[in-house]
Amino acid sequence: MESFTNFSVSLFKGFIDSLRGVTVLLYLDKEINERALSRSPNKEAENRQKNIKVNQESKVLTRVLQSCALNGGIFWFSILIFEYALLPGVKYLVSVVFGHDPGVAHSVWGWMQPFLSMTFRMIWVLPLFLLSKLVNSLWFQDIADSAYRHRRGRPQFMSSVSKIIADSLFSLLVQALFLIQSMLVSMLPITYIGELLCLTHLCLLYSLYSFEYKWFNMGWELHKRLTFIENNWPYFLGFGLPLAVLTQIPQSYIISGCVFSILFPLFILSGNEATPVLSSDYPLRLFSPVVALSNGMFRVVRQSAEAVTQRNR
Fold first, then answer.
1. Is the pTM of this model over 0.90?
2. Under 8 Å between Cβ of 277 and 13
3. Closest CA to 179 of 257, 81, 279, 281
4. Cα gap 13→15, rounded to integer Å
5. Into which family does the record put it (predicted)?
6. How far apart, in whole angstroms, are the C-alpha atoms of residue 272 and residue 213?
7. Structural contact between residues 269 and 227, judged by C-beta atoms closer than 8 angstroms
8. Which residues 6+ apart lie within 8 Å of 305 measured at CB?
9. CA gyration radius for the chain?
10. Average pLDDT per run of 10 along the chain, which is 313 residues long?
C-alpha cells in the first residue's frame, strides 16, 4: 500500500510539474530583465547596460513565440491550407471541367491527387520540416540556456570538448534506438499492453528530452541521466505524460512533430524549474537494452577503425 501511495504521489507530482512551464513563461523574462538591470554599475551606464543585457539574456518568450509561429503559424497552417482548401478546390475544378463525364473526372482526380500531394511534400513539407528541426534545436538551446543561467548561474560543462561530443553522439544514438524500441513494444499482440508500454517509453523519453538541457549544463554524463530516470521513473512517467498524449493524438507524423515543437519549449522551462521526487525502490531499466546495444555498436566501430589504422601503418 505504501509503495502504491509513493507511486501515485510521484506520478501526480511529475504531472503537475510538467505544467509549470506555462506559468514560468509569464514571469521569467521579467525576472531576467530586472536582474540584468540590477547589475548596472551606475546610473550613467544604465541605458547602455539595459539594451545590452536584455538583448543577451531575455530570449525565452521571444524564442517560444518564434517556435509557435514557425511550427504552428507557417508549417502546420500551410499543411491545413493544402489539405482542406487547395486540394478540395482543385478537385472541384476537375469536376467542373469534366462535369459531362463523372467517370473521367474521377479518373483524372485519381492520378492528380497523389501527384499533387507528393509534390507538395517534396517541395514544401520535407525541406521546411528539416529546416524547422535545425532552427528549433537552436531556439530550444537558447531557451534552456537563458532559463538555466537565471536559476543556477553559469553552466558546469563536462571536462573536455571530446567528452561533450562523445556524450552528445552517444545520447542521439540511445534516443533513436529507444524510439525504435517504443515502436516495437507497441506491436505486442496483447490488447492495450503494447499501447501502454509504448506510452510509457514515450513519457520517459520526453522527460529525458525536457531535463537533458539542465542536466547537461550541470555536467551530468548520459549514464547518470538515464540512471536517474530509471530509478525515479514514476515521477518522470507523470512528467512526460501530457506531451506524450498530445503528440499521439494526430495521425500524421508531421503534425505530431509540429505539436511537439510548439509545446516542447514549455516543458524545457518546466524541467528547469522542477525538483524530481526520488523513489528508487523499484528501478525500471527500460533504457538498459538500448544502452547495451549502443555500446556494442560503438565497440564494433572502434575496433574496425583500429583495424583499418593498423593495416595502413
1. no
2. yes
3. 257
4. 5
5. Belongs to the EI24 family.
6. 8
7. no
8. none
9. 24
10. 82 94 82 68 52 55 86 85 90 84 83 87 81 84 87 77 86 92 90 90 95 92 94 95 93 85 92 88 90 90 79 72
